[in-house]
Amino acid sequence: MMPILPVMLGYNFLPSYEWMSTANVLGLANGLFFAVALLWVGWRAKDRLPGGTLKKTVGIMAAPLFGYFMGKNVVLIAPPMILALVAGHHVEISFTVARADAYGTSRCRSPVELRDLPFLFNRVCRVSGQFRKDVSQGTEVEVTGHGTELGLFVEDIRQATK
């Protein structure tokens, strides 16, 4: 739950590409473990779950998806996030824009989405309209904020200098 809490509170956290490439296999393995574990727990507890057969079936089928997402994010997001909170300093990390023309959501207005990052941790919110017009898919950007070289809490975004 720790990796999702800052997102729910409106803070943007971005793991670095370096961390993602280092921890990706471990994240996949942990995600698969949690998916299988939640499926097993759901299957074992199906007789004690409230609701009808359809409700139980949907719950048991959704459990592995939730388990995979949470298990993978525990490995990919929590370590650099904790390190950023405990030992963070002002840092700048480069990313590549995936999309800058999305409408956004009520929790993330006017986002710039970044390439090759996990869901919920792949965008910078509340970016100015002018900046969004100036960047497009494939544009290199520099994100600054509080963190380490493994990830940061976003404070600012600008185009990378060539």
Structure at a glance:
The chain is α+β, with helices and mostly antiparallel strands and 162 residues long. It contains five helices and six strands; from the N terminus they run αβαααβββαββ.
Question: Keywords for this structure?
Answer:
162 residues; alpha+beta; six-stranded antiparallel sheet; elongated
Number of strands: 6
Question: What spatial order of strands do you see in the largest sheet?
Answer: 1-6-5-2-3-4
Runs with pLDDT <50, length 5+? none
The biggest beta sheet reads: 6 strands, antiparallel
How would you classify the helix and strand content by structural class? alpha+beta
Helix-strand string:
HEHHHEEEHEE
Distance between the termini: 39 Å
Overall pLDDT score? 89
Shape type: elongated
Question: What's the domain count?
Answer: 2
Task: Figure out the total of helices.
Answer: 5
Helical amount among residues, as a percent range? 40-55%
Proportion of residues in extended strands: 15-25%
Radius of gyration: 18 Å
